[in-house]
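Notes continue from the previous slide.

Worked example: a multi-chain complex. Inputs as given:
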Amino acid sequence: MTEFRVNRRDFLRTGAYAGGLMVTTSFLGSTLAAQETARKRNSKINHVILLYMEGGPSQLETFDPKPGTKNGGPTKALKTEVPGFTPADSLPYIAKRAKDLLLIKSMSTREGNHSRGAYLMRTGYAPNPTIKHPSLGSIVAQQLGNPDFELPNFVKLRGAPFPAGYLGVDNNPFVINRPGARIENLDYAKGVDKDRMERRMKLVREMEKDFAKERGEDAVEAHRAMYEKARRLMDSPLRKKFYLDDEPGETRKAYGEGQFADSLIIARRLIEVGVPAIEVVMGGWDTHDDNFKRSADLCKQIDQPWAALIDDLKKRKLYDSTLVIWMGEFGRTPRISGTSGRDHWPNNFCVVLGGGGVNAGTVIGETDEEGAGRDGRGNPLVKDPVSPAELYKTLGVMMDWEMNKEFQAGNRPMWLTEKTAKPVEKIFK
Amino acid sequence: MTPKLIVPAVAALLVAVCLVASSQLAEGQKRKSRTKATEVNGKDWRVLRDALDEAFEEMQEDEGIVPAPIVDDGTFLRRVYLDLTGAPPSPAEIAEFEPGKLRRKQTQEEKREALVEQLLASPEFADHMATWWSTIMSERRGYGRGPSYQALRDAFAANTPWDKVVNNVLAPSISTRGKRGEVVTYYGRGYIEELAYLQDFGYLVGMPVKVFLGRQVGCAECHDHPYDPYTQDDFEAWSAFFKTFVDVRQVGDESYISVGREMQFRNTADLERQLQLKGRYKLPRYLDGTDWKLEPGKSPRQQMADWVTSPENPWFREMTVNRYMDYFMGIGFVTPVDDFNALNDPTIPVILRVLGKDFADSGFDTRYLVRAIVNSRMYQRMSAPNPSNQTDRMLYSRQFVRELSPEVIERSILKATGIERLNPPKGISKKQAEMNAAYGYGSPYRAQLRALLTQAYEGDPAVKDLDDRNTNPMRALMFMNGDLLPDGQDNAVKEIMRRTADKMKRGELIFQTVLGRSPTEREREILRVTFVRWTGGEEVYEDLFLALMNTSEFFNRH
């Protein structure tokens, strides 16, 4: 028989160490996180609002129209105070705020598939089957948020939940499916008031004692923390910030009508009371057919509310501490398809930034008359291309994220942004 | 470090050590060999069980670790019901087991063994195992319960050998597709076809390797693997097995994956030509570096499935036993459970090897494996730590408190509230009812519950174990304020109130219904005080029911 020689003591030590860690993470995790986020950041940005356009908005029907050219279609362009910033004619409100915005015309990736492209744009990393990257809102929640805050640090208005991956469930988005409507399960059930719930919870605490003492102290602790968080949310006076009931008619009028408008008002109400990360999702941009009419219609839905948000934040002196980002997963083909549509086009598309620290009134990148030329090999010719990794690095620099910190994802090291990527300095300088 | 440490586990595992009980490990537990067999042989699960117990107990003793005592009947009952059927026992099932009592001439060991046999034969076992495996296989993406749910359910009910099950999952034979008993899916396709719906070739090619072999090749789609010897070239060669029936086309800027008919090849040159037509030229190669050779009458896909599930393939058998240990013991030999790599050594490689080999020798009999584990002392230990075993995560000197999966929570709620059982649907055909059961569908109540749970757990398959507790307040909100006992429908609380007017009896039944165990003396005292002080109406029973459903015990198995 073979003799297996194993240094078991060594194993045991690593095992024990790992075991010890595992047992304590749920306690220490939050305390440690609290200490870490209490770190003094060298940035005046305290909030991020991501306006996420699901489906891939056409750059040619939003911020890079080419009227009068072969690929331009019927979309016209508006002149603004900023050279090169010539949005589509369905964005008149935004056109007037060109000086408050920075336009990237040369966002460029290779992901022409919705879920992969969305993952890349939301996280700064390409999807990888062995790892789960946090999305922008989760990073902001973890880096800028206060873990003891009574409202969630990341609120997502519509859209599918996107788990925070290795940053842990504490930084998951709190998803509101129907902005403005009553949030499911946030209110006491019928026939239950605060007293009755308190009676129940007292019973819960009593009934947990044996379990805690004998077997799962840490499980019970994590469980209690979760309930405490939920109950603080249920009883919080700030809860009304999720709804529009007490918002003056004047503001509501300024934002206009529609779900996107309502979402933006809620976003503003939430950052006003300290929520660091908001994502507003608007779908419908996958315009494979009838692109021109549909795009114009979608633009109309975002134009006035977005402009109103800029004005509103400025009025409340929040624009300088809030970063507003408009993006989708990719752009659309310059060539117009047989169904008057445009297909997926990750080679060059637009991202718009505004607010805190942004070098507003600037345009980065340029495309040629056809919407994008190609070199001899078929690669797109785009001036000053920006990759998602570079964009996220830039955001990290602007908000002073801990980009050198090594996070553990399973058993491999991870960084909030791609290590080798360089920030695009033009965005903030 | 003293290099003198020869693992006695080997001795203990390969040759049963008929040691006379020499030391008292814990109260009432004498270390002794319970069988006279000499070697693990893939035939008698008791031999394997004893070998595991002895190996770990010997190591515990060497390390000065005192293992936790064996749990009482009530705790065992709840644990084994949750692990094998995916829900705690009902009051009737508790009564049937009679915790703490023994029949004449019956030992505790025999009594528990009989229960395990009963559960293994139940439809709930097959259902729960199928749910468990299909969530692993789908990572909770895609439709319904994920790939192959119904087929897996049938396979677990029939105790089909695991290599056969996986072989069928990877390469369902065309002629038998759709026949009952074969591993096919709702769509009449195999696992690969279902993965193909996700439109990501790297995922499609990498998932079977991750799920069944515990290796991560997905990384090598874009770059050479950082710490395993997989290169992009290896990935492409492995992908070629799939390319013979999966077509990846680039249309415009979107890639489409379609699944075509499997092709038959006359010779290697023929396959080469076919692969060339599909864009990338590369002959298949197995992941261990073995070259592919044409076998008449077999498709490359079938050959791939045969290689994966071969008894000679150590990855397959070791990955499977690792997953079962991880599931039943809270941690496997390799963690994360499906990440075997050069930098991630197993805790005790020799036991993993022997256990894997024995599982293969048993004919890949998963029930054999389950019997050996759940009838062992290591499985039946208490989870409460003592100073000596507090940090032990590898010698199994105590059980672990494990957070239950959303699927088990769903099943537990359905069983506890009794909504589906007490409100049978009207006007539903027998066939429809069968279909619902087969695909894990059910009442509108279940659909709503599932939607809520999906949101509360954010569809996150990473929810697992102590290192990643779900602290999302959405879950607490759902359990505190959600409509778990809808108005106008009969439920378990009402049923209990009809059954008895005795307050304490009602309290006890509610306790058993929700938590799957009887209240302790202290808890009975709390019930008594609650009922005495209570001046309101009968809503106190509903309050008790919902309160228990909000305890952390409800969400954990310990």
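Summary box: The longest strand of chain A covers residues 47-53. Chain A touches chain B through 94 residues (CB under 8 Å).
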